[in-house]
């Protein structure tokens, strides 16, 4: 197996069209857990656009080859090997029938065909189809599929595959069958089947053109009471894509299936989306407001793939962002429209803030480390490692910039042209860019650099006001700063950066904007500057007073802005900016700056202090009833420890934790009565509502509770949290209260209240795996103390009967939560966290390489940490490198150590 050999690098520059094409595929499955027989009959022909090849080379992994036939006759020149099947001297056009056997019951990788909870599921993206049958398993080979499923009727009463159901019926020996046909050509990664004991919530809806569609959400019988929200989200998604993009559902039936063993969030298989249960199942007792919002977003995301990904797919995996960046952008816009419609900018901004926070914390970090890569990568060893923050989240920002440049209407025109040109094709990121450019009569050659350059651009800003001439000039300079070597290699020249700006007067209002050369000021008080050179000056005229600039409004490009605001100016922006995103941003800048100063002091043992003016700026937000609760919660939440550590010259998680806790305590003590007021005023008595307003109240109230728990005397907070825990009619309030109880008692090594609530929580939800995941995660992310380090808790929980390393959600809830979401404890000076990490990466590597590789990434930024930690991290990485089996984990640790 090549798994132990030096990994092969796949390069974008080496793309060549396939030597053969496959037009139709007829699959027959005899489903048996340990031994499933697959018969695959394909119409194959030579590709007129490719060089003539001597052999047909099909991919195949973990398959037992049985037989091959060409045009109905046994074919002897078929040679099976570990990675596929080689067929010599094949005709130019022929029918190929292959029979092979696989073992779904033994498949712990959750790629290909596998068994979960006694039912069969598939996961084929990116390269899982080759674990089901021999095939040209690459996205530029598109075929129509017919699928026949045969299985025991008692064990597998439901048999599903892509497209439309043609017929079903009984067979001898208690077996039955179903035959499905997908009328749309698709690449193999969109194939899916599901078989087992499942039930569905069903709905019939009419699409825009009046056709009736059958919608189903399939789950295990005991979960049927948790499907309503996913169904509503699907219906909203269908309506939204019709209204915003004129895109209709193209099949008569659309199915969502939930499975509890799943490597990622969900998968857009044509007409048969398969979801992690975490992104389907919800009711108020088991799911938080965040879960509800995530379900809406992921259901939307997978549904939107039907056009952006399935009808128009990727030529090769280097183009992954073509479908993922675009579809993330679409799901972000969908969620924003659901929260605030097209015009409620403040409500839309809360979604924008959440998305940017993820981008900055996760993608910026990725771009600064050894896995840095452009949105369209140039090479990879294991494609599963490139389902990244860069491809998804930065990719979405790149798509958003087209909309920022051309407006919603211009963006829509570009999308329309993209579908007119490419429906039914496998295309590239360049094809998308050309459609946007041509539809808007623009040359977007320079914009290509967003796809080819890695690293986070920095824009530094200088401003100058000339009172006599009433001119205000803004000089922008772009560059990359000190980037990781992987990123630096790709950086060629300046980017086209849409830089949105507003100018704010002394009264806090926006000033009219008139650029030099314009006859008069425009109506809009935000202007998108097209910043294309390394350095460029934009001059505003008729500026009657010296303004305060509001820079990069709504985060109009994925860059870091450097500008020397004073603390007073930031407080002013936080109080007045008309751009809600930048109001939040001003608060974050203010807090980040203070926190980094404090972390520097904490690192060297200097006593900490916080200026009253900072407390005052936060107090104003806390008590400003004109702001929505959701916004206030976001503005009052300090930047995360991970983000702050990343900003330090040398990451020091302990110092960051000390600084952040100091500020939280200071804000808690200084504003105690305000927090109490807010806590009381934002209760949501009565039946649970999942609306954005209600969830905003809960978020602010629970934030207040968490600050109250920081008081020197947390007794009152503990009393409130206990009462909230007992009275809660929803998971948001219950889990927030439990978290506060755990953290309030951390310094004392735990409390009776906390233990009682933990035990109650477990008993109450013993039969709800997704809630037990929360139980593990809350403990793994809790605060620790010298008396009781969290690693001890985590090690004990690893032996809990409910822990199961094979289930990715469970592994993530305990191990990933500790290694990636509890930096102060994970980075303990004694290296205990790193030793634990190495053991778990190695253990997971033997079970599920995709999941192991994700965990492996939590040490990739090791070079950026303080020397004391660096050594421990390197030792752990070297230990893993010496024992790793999979290509997935090997790529990560080798890049980290390089
Ligand atoms: N295409 C999926 C999405 O973003 C994600 C995906 C890729 C995936 N590979 C996977 C999901 C493997 C599960 C397992 O919507
Ligand atoms: Zn996707």
Q: How is this fold's topology laid out?
A:
Blueprint: E1 10-11, E2 20-30, E3 36-46, E4 55-59, E5 64-70, E6 73-74, E7 78-81, E8 84-88, E9 93-102, E10 112-116, E11 119-123, E12 142-152, E13 158-161, E14 164-170, E15 175-187, E16 193-196, E17 199-206, E18 212-219, H1 228-245, E19 253-259, E20 266-267, E21 272-276, H2 289-304, E22 313-314, H3 320-340, H4 345-367, E23 379-380, H5 389-422, E24 426-427, H6 429-439, H7 449-452, E25 458-466, E26 471-479, H8 485-488, E27 497-504, E28 527-531, E29 535-540, E30 548-551, E31 560-562, H9 567-576, H10 580-604, H11 612-623, H12 629-636, H13 641-647, H14 653-670, H15 672-681, H16 692-708, H17 715-727, H18 731-744, H19 752-764, H20 769-780, H21 790-798, H22 808-821, H23 823-826, H24 832-845, H25 849-856, H26 867-883, H27 887-897
Parallel strand pairs: 2-12, 18-19, 19-21, 22-24, 25-31
Antiparallel strand pairs: 1-23, 2-3, 3-9, 4-8, 5-6, 5-9, 7-8, 10-11, 11-16, 12-15, 13-16, 14-15, 17-18, 20-21, 25-26, 26-29, 27-28, 27-30
Helix pairs in contact: 1-2, 2-3, 3-4, 3-5, 4-5, 5-6, 9-10, 9-11, 10-12, 10-14, 12-16, 13-14, 15-16, 16-18, 17-18, 20-22, 24-25, 24-26, 25-27, 26-27
The structure holds tryptophan (TRP) and zinc ion.
End-to-end Cα distance, whole Å, is 24 Å
User: What is the topology, as strand order, of the major beta sheet?
Assistant: 6-5-9-3-2-12-15-14
Radius of gyration, whole Å: 28 Å
Hey, roughly how much beta strand do the residues contain?
Answer: 15-25%
Bulk shape: globular
Q: Roughly how much helix do the residues carry, as a percent range?
A: 40-55%
Kindly report the average pLDDT value: 97
How many helical stretches?
27
What is the highest CATH level, the class of the largest domain? Mainly Alpha
Helix-strand makeup class: alpha+beta
CATH topology of the largest domain: Zincin-like fold
CATH homology superfamily of the largest domain: Peptidase M1, alanyl aminopeptidase, C-terminal domain
